[in-house]
Amino acid sequence: MDVVSDAIAAVRTGSPSVNRLRVSGSWCVRLEPYEGAGFHVALAGDCWLLPDTGPALTLRRGDAVLLPHGAGHVLADAPADAATLARAVPFDTVGDRAPRPGASAVELLCGKYRLDRSHTHPLLAELPDVVHLPREGAGPGPHPELRSAVGLLAREAGVPGLPGACAAVPSLLDLLLVYMIRAWTTDPATGSGGARWPAALADPVVTEALRLLHGDPAAPWTAGSLATRAGVSRATLGRRFTALVGRPPMAYLTWWRMTRAATLLRAADAPLESVARQVGYGSPYALSHAFRREFGVTPGRYRTGHLPRAHSTSLAKQS
Q: What is the arithmetic mean of pLDDT over 298-312?
């Protein structure tokens, strides 16, 4: 796995959802804050996105916007004043309706991802409340893979009853999230200037060290062995890694092992011996000690709170 994929997998829960919104004339809808990430893609027409905090922005045809922290916001046909915002109707009450004759129609693809924010990867935590990915010119723009995913998703969501749509749509939504985060990490135009993680992923030494740690977190890494594999001295790796990632390599590895353990505990009822082995600990006791230091609870109690009730009694005994 790589850093972006692992960061998403560590917080994703449940299935994403998507809706196609068609409106015209004068309209204003509100989306309340929620536990997850949201996105909008303008398929036709222009509209305004008005976050609860931060400046308003125009969404033009082909633009995409990611709200990675579930910020509350309003979508409207114009930069609304306070009186208009007060009359905004809940998003779920609008639905997909035919445009009024002669009115300029706006068509949006809107979706949500459910996220568990109890241990968010710092890459995702560093994302701004709004990531605006404008389409530039008539071509695919700077992110052709994002545009391709949008086109495929728009078709799947816009044609009811397509065979296999129930399998295709969640997969395309996963791709869309990856592409939007990738765009933020690689394109200065998205507003990532000054953020640590885009710089970390652009540094070849830090990127190689991260690739190694995420590729095999259970390996018996030391600062020296990691530096050797990254092709630099231990001091050089420590300095560059800490400056860009925010913590030394071994501290990051410990944190990632615990985050990975939490993901495994939420996802399945595998024995603690198996979870410990997968994240580089020789025994359930060693894992429990490190896990409790990070999360404040034992692995067994943590899992009891995240799996269905049917598992609770037997799993509590593993703590």
A: 68
